[in-house]
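Anyone opening a protein record will find just a pair of labelled lines. A complete record is shown below as an example.
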Amino acid sequence: MPILMSYKELYQSLFDAHVVSPFYLKPLQPLYPKWYDANAQCDYHARITGHSIENCIAFRTLVERFINMSIVKFDDSSNTENPLPNHVVNGINMISEAIGRRIKTDIAKVKTSLRRVWKEMIKRD
């Protein structure tokens, strides 16, 4: 599925938003597969050598799941105009569509673990 940025940029955005975390693997031992690249490191697999995140099948599969679940969305419109009006008052830095919903603004109060989210994703498939 084509995306509008590099997988490295997407990983960093998802990591910064606390949606993904590094997935640790044991390093491969010789005899290496044909695709093994000793000069490449995968950010998703905790910088393990052997492949880059651009060629990481596990991360691509995860991104496809996120797209199918509407966790990740790409706006492919070429409209470069800013859809937000110019604000004359400084201090507006967010627009919320959460009318009638409770939102936790303190990240320390969010207690959903990535492990639980991952298990729920696997159950859905």
